[in-house]
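Researcher: Here's a chain I'd like modeled. Treat it as a single chain, no partners, no ligands.
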Amino acid sequence: MQCYDDYGRVVRSWSQHHLGGTDITDNTYNFDGSLKGSTRSHSKGMATTTIATTYSYDHMGRPTTTTHSINGAAPTTISENVYNRDGAKVSEGVQRNWWRQGMNGSIKAHYDCIKAFSETDFTEDLKSVTIPVLVMHGEDDQIVPFETTGKVAATLLPNGKLISYPGFPHGMPTTEAATINKDLLAFFES
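Model: Modeled as a single isolated chain. Structure tokens:
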């Protein structure tokens, strides 16, 4: 069940979770309509866990810091967004879409993903892949560095082909779709 304010924004949601308890989320908004914070209460039986999340934004309305406080403890910074360096081409629509995707995932899923790709050695797995594999990587990827990931992965694959893209960012399939799609199609047809 969801409750909305006069502007159509969700101010409270209630649901039953898979363990038979309830989740209640209350949202507050800034004057400009951006999400200021949310408080989520996760209950099962007599036990309740409350997570208070706050969001801050820069002068352009871009999210900068997200904090969590669990059961009234001191807030912990969950994320700090440092945006592209000076001179980078920035699309507000793409930026907001990436933020939306990040906010739609659970903190547990995000953590598990980062833990897996940062702590797992995939060397033997890559060496065992015998089908042709195309590795595409932007050389200006500020999230997953090209030199230590894409470049290395391509050398470990017995039938790996590397295409690196000078100046392309982490989100190159979105920002450089025409180039990426052309190269993908050529690889599939080869």
